[in-house]
Amino acid sequence: MLEFGGAVTEVSLGAPAPMAGSVLAIGAFDGVHLGHQRLIQAAVADGWRLGLQSVIWTFDPPPKVVFGRAAPLCGLEEKLTRIARLGPDLIVVIPFGPSYAARTAAQFIADLTRISPRHIHVGADFRFGARQSGDVALLAEHFPVTLAAPVCCAAGETISSTRLRDLRTRGECGSALMGPEAALICAPSGAHMTLNLHHREAMDGWN
Ligand SMILES: Cc1cc2nc3c(=O)[nH]c(=O)nc-3n(C[C@H](O)[C@H](O)[C@H](O)COP(=O)(O)O)c2cc1C
Ligand SMILES: Nc1ncnc2c1ncn2[C@@H]1O[C@H](COP(=O)(O)OP(=O)(O)OP(=O)(O)O)[C@@H](O)[C@H]1O
User: Fold this and answer.
1) N or C: which terminal CB in the chain sees fewer CB atoms within 10 Å?
2) How confident is the model over 140-167, as pLDDT tens digits?
3) Does the residue 156 lie in any domain?
Protein backbone atom coordinates (compact mmCIF):
# COMPACT_ATOMS: atom_id res chain seq x y z
CA MET A 1 0.00 0.00 0.00
CA LEU A 2 1.28 3.48 -0.90
CA GLU A 3 -0.15 6.74 0.44
CA PHE A 4 0.21 10.23 -1.02
CA GLY A 5 -1.79 13.19 0.24
CA GLY A 6 -4.32 10.89 1.90
CA ALA A 7 -4.96 8.88 -1.28
CA VAL A 8 -4.19 5.19 -0.94
CA THR A 9 -2.88 3.00 -3.77
CA GLU A 10 -2.79 -0.75 -3.30
CA VAL A 11 -0.08 -2.82 -4.99
CA SER A 12 -0.68 -6.38 -6.17
CA LEU A 13 2.42 -8.32 -7.13
CA GLY A 14 1.11 -10.91 -9.55
CA ALA A 15 -2.47 -11.88 -10.27
CA PRO A 16 -4.97 -9.41 -8.78
CA ALA A 17 -8.07 -10.53 -6.94
CA PRO A 18 -11.16 -10.63 -9.20
CA MET A 19 -13.07 -7.34 -9.49
CA ALA A 20 -16.64 -6.56 -10.57
CA GLY A 21 -15.57 -3.56 -12.66
CA SER A 22 -12.48 -1.45 -13.31
CA VAL A 23 -10.82 1.13 -15.55
CA LEU A 24 -7.41 0.11 -16.75
CA ALA A 25 -4.20 1.58 -18.17
CA ILE A 26 -1.56 -0.92 -19.33
CA GLY A 27 2.12 -0.52 -20.08
CA ALA A 28 5.72 -1.04 -19.07
CA PHE A 29 5.84 2.61 -17.96
CA ASP A 30 9.62 2.66 -17.54
CA GLY A 31 10.44 6.09 -16.11
CA VAL A 32 6.75 7.14 -15.95
CA HIS A 33 7.37 10.04 -18.33
CA LEU A 34 4.80 12.69 -19.29
CA GLY A 35 3.20 10.46 -21.96
CA HIS A 36 2.71 7.67 -19.42
CA GLN A 37 1.41 10.16 -16.88
CA ARG A 38 -1.27 11.39 -19.30
CA LEU A 39 -2.41 7.80 -19.91
CA ILE A 40 -2.51 6.97 -16.21
CA GLN A 41 -4.32 10.22 -15.38
CA ALA A 42 -6.96 9.42 -18.02
CA ALA A 43 -7.64 6.05 -16.34
CA VAL A 44 -7.78 7.63 -12.88
CA ALA A 45 -10.18 10.33 -14.12
CA ASP A 46 -12.42 7.72 -15.79
CA GLY A 47 -12.44 5.71 -12.58
CA TRP A 48 -13.73 8.74 -10.69
CA ARG A 49 -16.27 9.57 -13.41
CA LEU A 50 -17.64 6.03 -13.64
CA GLY A 51 -17.36 5.16 -9.95
CA LEU A 52 -14.97 2.27 -10.71
CA GLN A 53 -11.57 1.23 -9.40
CA SER A 54 -8.69 2.62 -11.48
CA VAL A 55 -6.05 -0.03 -12.10
CA ILE A 56 -2.57 0.44 -13.59
CA TRP A 57 -1.30 -2.84 -15.03
CA THR A 58 2.45 -2.94 -15.45
CA PHE A 59 5.35 -5.35 -15.83
CA ASP A 60 8.57 -5.76 -13.90
CA PRO A 61 11.19 -5.74 -15.27
CA PRO A 62 9.96 -3.92 -18.40
CA PRO A 63 9.63 -6.48 -21.24
CA LYS A 64 12.22 -4.65 -23.37
CA VAL A 65 14.71 -5.07 -20.54
CA VAL A 66 13.89 -8.78 -20.20
CA PHE A 67 14.43 -9.25 -23.93
CA GLY A 68 17.71 -7.34 -23.80
CA ARG A 69 16.53 -4.47 -25.98
CA ALA A 70 16.95 -1.73 -23.33
CA ALA A 71 18.47 -0.82 -19.99
CA PRO A 72 15.86 0.27 -17.42
CA LEU A 73 15.38 3.97 -16.66
CA CYS A 74 14.27 3.29 -13.10
CA GLY A 75 13.68 0.50 -10.63
CA LEU A 76 10.34 -0.85 -9.46
CA GLU A 77 10.19 1.30 -6.34
CA GLU A 78 10.65 4.54 -8.27
CA LYS A 79 8.11 3.44 -10.84
CA LEU A 80 5.51 2.55 -8.21
CA THR A 81 6.09 5.80 -6.36
CA ARG A 82 5.68 7.88 -9.50
CA ILE A 83 2.52 6.02 -10.54
CA ALA A 84 1.00 6.13 -7.05
CA ARG A 85 1.38 9.93 -6.95
CA LEU A 86 -1.15 10.07 -9.79
CA GLY A 87 -3.79 8.50 -7.53
CA PRO A 88 -4.85 5.11 -8.98
CA ASP A 89 -6.64 2.67 -6.66
CA LEU A 90 -4.49 -0.33 -7.58
CA ILE A 91 -1.20 -1.04 -9.34
CA VAL A 92 -0.84 -4.60 -10.65
CA VAL A 93 2.82 -5.57 -11.08
CA ILE A 94 3.30 -8.62 -13.26
CA PRO A 95 6.66 -10.32 -12.66
CA PHE A 96 7.72 -10.50 -16.30
CA GLY A 97 9.91 -13.40 -17.38
CA PRO A 98 9.97 -16.18 -19.93
CA SER A 99 6.85 -17.92 -18.62
CA TYR A 100 4.65 -14.81 -18.63
CA ALA A 101 6.09 -13.73 -21.98
CA ALA A 102 4.99 -17.08 -23.42
CA ARG A 103 1.34 -16.43 -22.58
CA THR A 104 -0.74 -16.01 -25.69
CA ALA A 105 -2.73 -12.89 -26.52
CA ALA A 106 -5.89 -14.86 -25.65
CA GLN A 107 -4.47 -15.84 -22.25
CA PHE A 108 -3.57 -12.21 -21.54
CA ILE A 109 -7.11 -11.14 -22.43
CA ALA A 110 -8.34 -13.80 -19.98
CA ASP A 111 -5.96 -12.37 -17.32
CA LEU A 112 -7.51 -8.93 -17.81
CA THR A 113 -11.05 -10.30 -17.80
CA ARG A 114 -10.75 -11.31 -14.15
CA ILE A 115 -10.84 -7.59 -13.19
CA SER A 116 -13.75 -6.82 -15.55
CA PRO A 117 -12.36 -3.77 -17.39
CA ARG A 118 -15.10 -1.39 -18.52
CA HIS A 119 -12.52 0.80 -20.19
CA ILE A 120 -8.85 0.31 -21.17
CA HIS A 121 -6.41 3.14 -21.94
CA VAL A 122 -3.36 2.35 -24.09
CA GLY A 123 -1.34 3.98 -26.85
CA ALA A 124 -1.84 3.00 -30.49
CA ASP A 125 1.39 0.96 -30.54
CA PHE A 126 0.47 -1.26 -27.57
CA ARG A 127 1.25 -4.95 -28.19
CA PHE A 128 0.74 -8.00 -25.98
CA GLY A 129 1.02 -11.77 -25.96
CA ALA A 130 3.79 -14.14 -27.02
CA ARG A 131 5.87 -12.69 -29.85
CA GLN A 132 3.80 -9.49 -29.49
CA SER A 133 0.97 -11.08 -31.46
CA GLY A 134 -1.85 -9.01 -29.90
CA ASP A 135 -2.61 -5.41 -30.88
CA VAL A 136 -5.15 -2.74 -30.02
CA ALA A 137 -7.58 -4.00 -32.67
CA LEU A 138 -7.69 -7.41 -30.94
CA LEU A 139 -7.96 -5.78 -27.50
CA ALA A 140 -10.89 -3.68 -28.75
CA GLU A 141 -12.74 -6.86 -29.78
CA HIS A 142 -12.97 -7.70 -26.06
CA PHE A 143 -13.06 -4.38 -24.16
CA PRO A 144 -13.87 -0.71 -24.83
CA VAL A 145 -10.46 0.80 -25.64
CA THR A 146 -9.43 4.46 -25.61
CA LEU A 147 -6.26 5.29 -27.53
CA ALA A 148 -4.07 7.99 -25.99
CA ALA A 149 -3.06 10.86 -28.24
CA PRO A 150 0.75 11.06 -28.36
CA VAL A 151 2.20 13.48 -25.81
CA CYS A 152 5.03 15.49 -27.34
CA CYS A 153 7.79 17.67 -25.97
CA ALA A 154 8.05 21.40 -26.65
CA ALA A 155 10.02 20.65 -29.82
CA GLY A 156 7.14 18.51 -31.10
CA GLU A 157 8.76 15.08 -30.76
CA THR A 158 6.84 12.24 -29.14
CA ILE A 159 8.11 11.53 -25.65
CA SER A 160 9.24 7.94 -25.08
CA SER A 161 11.33 5.86 -22.70
CA THR A 162 13.62 5.17 -25.66
CA ARG A 163 14.28 8.90 -26.07
CA LEU A 164 14.98 9.25 -22.37
CA ARG A 165 17.42 6.34 -22.51
CA ASP A 166 19.18 8.05 -25.42
CA LEU A 167 19.37 11.30 -23.46
CA ARG A 168 20.76 9.46 -20.48
CA THR A 169 23.44 7.86 -22.65
CA ARG A 170 24.49 11.40 -23.57
CA GLY A 171 24.63 12.33 -19.87
CA GLU A 172 21.37 14.28 -19.79
CA CYS A 173 18.50 13.66 -17.40
CA GLY A 174 15.59 14.62 -19.69
CA SER A 175 13.74 16.10 -16.71
CA ALA A 176 11.57 18.23 -19.02
CA LEU A 177 10.05 14.97 -20.30
CA MET A 178 9.54 13.51 -16.85
CA GLY A 179 7.36 16.12 -15.15
CA PRO A 180 6.99 16.47 -11.38
CA GLU A 181 9.34 14.42 -9.23
CA ALA A 182 11.84 13.96 -12.05
CA ALA A 183 14.48 14.37 -9.37
CA LEU A 184 13.52 10.95 -8.03
CA ILE A 185 14.65 9.34 -11.25
CA CYS A 186 17.56 11.68 -11.83
CA ALA A 187 18.96 11.35 -8.32
CA PRO A 188 22.07 9.24 -7.88
CA SER A 189 21.20 5.68 -6.87
CA GLY A 190 20.93 5.27 -3.13
CA ALA A 191 18.55 8.23 -2.76
CA HIS A 192 15.51 6.06 -3.40
CA MET A 193 12.74 5.47 -0.90
CA THR A 194 12.07 1.93 0.24
CA LEU A 195 8.65 0.41 -0.12
CA ASN A 196 7.28 -2.36 1.96
CA LEU A 197 5.65 -4.73 -0.49
CA HIS A 198 3.30 -7.04 1.32
CA HIS A 199 2.11 -9.04 -1.63
CA ARG A 200 5.11 -11.19 -2.52
CA GLU A 201 3.05 -14.27 -1.81
CA ALA A 202 0.59 -13.30 -4.56
CA MET A 203 3.10 -14.03 -7.34
CA ASP A 204 1.34 -17.24 -8.38
CA GLY A 205 -2.30 -17.57 -9.34
CA TRP A 206 -2.33 -17.63 -13.13
CA ASN A 207 -4.34 -20.39 -14.75
C1 LIG B 1 1.30 -11.92 -22.07
C2 LIG B 1 2.39 -11.11 -22.71
C3 LIG B 1 3.36 -11.73 -23.49
C4 LIG B 1 4.39 -10.98 -24.07
N5 LIG B 1 5.33 -11.61 -24.84
C6 LIG B 1 6.25 -10.87 -25.48
C7 LIG B 1 7.19 -11.47 -26.38
O8 LIG B 1 7.17 -12.68 -26.61
N9 LIG B 1 8.14 -10.68 -26.96
C10 LIG B 1 8.21 -9.32 -26.72
O11 LIG B 1 9.07 -8.66 -27.25
N12 LIG B 1 7.31 -8.72 -25.89
C13 LIG B 1 6.34 -9.45 -25.27
N14 LIG B 1 5.45 -8.83 -24.44
C15 LIG B 1 5.61 -7.41 -24.15
C16 LIG B 1 4.68 -6.55 -24.98
O17 LIG B 1 5.10 -6.55 -26.33
C18 LIG B 1 4.66 -5.10 -24.42
O19 LIG B 1 5.95 -4.61 -24.24
C20 LIG B 1 3.91 -5.03 -23.10
O21 LIG B 1 2.59 -5.48 -23.30
C22 LIG B 1 3.88 -3.64 -22.51
O23 LIG B 1 3.39 -2.71 -23.44
P24 LIG B 1 4.23 -1.41 -23.79
O25 LIG B 1 5.53 -1.89 -24.37
O26 LIG B 1 3.39 -0.65 -24.75
O27 LIG B 1 4.42 -0.68 -22.52
C28 LIG B 1 4.42 -9.57 -23.87
C29 LIG B 1 3.42 -8.95 -23.11
C30 LIG B 1 2.43 -9.69 -22.54
C31 LIG B 1 1.37 -8.99 -21.72
N1 LIG C 1 4.31 10.11 -25.49
C2 LIG C 1 3.28 9.30 -25.28
N3 LIG C 1 2.04 9.78 -25.41
C4 LIG C 1 0.96 8.97 -25.19
N5 LIG C 1 1.03 7.67 -24.87
C6 LIG C 1 2.25 7.14 -24.73
C7 LIG C 1 3.44 7.92 -24.92
N8 LIG C 1 4.50 7.14 -24.70
C9 LIG C 1 4.02 5.91 -24.42
N10 LIG C 1 2.67 5.90 -24.43
C11 LIG C 1 1.81 4.77 -24.19
O12 LIG C 1 2.01 4.32 -22.86
C13 LIG C 1 1.91 2.88 -22.79
C14 LIG C 1 3.18 2.33 -22.18
O15 LIG C 1 4.20 2.65 -23.08
P16 LIG C 1 5.68 2.14 -22.95
O17 LIG C 1 5.89 1.72 -21.54
O18 LIG C 1 5.97 1.17 -24.03
O19 LIG C 1 6.46 3.54 -23.17
P20 LIG C 1 7.37 4.01 -24.33
O21 LIG C 1 7.80 5.37 -23.94
O22 LIG C 1 6.67 3.87 -25.65
O23 LIG C 1 8.58 2.99 -24.20
P24 LIG C 1 9.71 2.56 -25.23
O25 LIG C 1 10.28 3.81 -25.81
O26 LIG C 1 10.66 1.77 -24.40
O27 LIG C 1 8.98 1.72 -26.29
C28 LIG C 1 1.73 2.39 -24.23
O29 LIG C 1 0.34 2.10 -24.41
C30 LIG C 1 2.17 3.57 -25.07
O31 LIG C 1 1.50 3.63 -26.32
Assistant:
1) C
2) 999 999 999 999 988 888 999 999 999 8
3) no
Range of the domain at 42: 7-150
Please tell me whether the peptide bond between 61 and the residue prior to it is cis, using omega within 30 degrees of 0: yes
- Given ligand 1 and candidates 30, 37, 59, which is best to mutate, with the most ligand atoms within 8 Å of its CB? 59
Q: How many CB atoms lie within 10 A of CB 134?
A: 20
Sort strands 22-26 and 117-122 into parallel, antiparallel or unpaired.
parallel
In a domain, 173, yes or no: no
* ipTM at complex level: 0.98
Phi and psi for 76 in degrees, rounded to 5? -60, -40
What's the predicted TM-score (pTM) here? 0.90
**180 close to 186: Cβ distance less than 8 angstroms:** no
CATH number of the domain that 62 lies in?
3.40.50.620
The greatest distance separating any two alpha carbons of the chain, rounded to the nearest whole angstrom, comes to 47
CA atoms of 139 and 132, how far apart (whole Å): 12
139, 108, 115, 114: which is closest to 125 by C-alpha? 139
Q: Is the CB of 162 under 6 A from ligand 2?
A: yes
